[in-house]
Amino acid sequence: MATKLKPAYSVGRNVRLSPLQRIMQKTGRRPTECKCSLCKRQCHTPCLGTPQDILRLMDSGYTSRLSPTLWAAGIVMGICDTEVPLIQARCEDGAWGGLLDVGADSHCTFYTSDGLCELHQQGLKPTEGRLSHHSTRIDNFRASKSVSWAVVQEWLSPDNADVVAEVVRRYNEYQDEQSNTHTL
Description:
This protein has seven helices and six strands. It is α+β, with helices and mostly antiparallel strands. The chain has one domain (32-182). Helix 1 (19-27) crosses helix 6 (147-156) and helix 3 crosses helix 7 (161-182). The relative contact order is 0.21.
């Protein structure tokens, strides 16, 4: 049975870990730079970023390539009971209304013709992409160690409420500016 949504990490008294450090601690994953065809294939679905990752993308001028989405994989995995609204990298050639409709031609907005992430060299690659590796397969997957679930928990954490609010404010501001530009 699925559990109610709640942040599942805790840190010791006076210890402040970054979101990446918390996720690494929870999942046992470390940043990787594998460029094999299996890892490149993962880039057809945008990797999830923490609120801090998304704010850095906005600060770097990428707001136009972000989109609201609903993370529902946790329902399928049996680790949560509802969709979680997020703002993430857009899915191209398969996106519909901001929700992912990943097909054969779909890919992350940051996927380049050489199959790599354009954000990598800039140090802006979202957390899931930094920690993802082709060694995770159906036969060795554990939902409790899922990087995507750990990233989503950062969006749900009260500790990140101010950052989430800022991401939403900036995204809405950008959308309002786009609406005003197109109505002139």
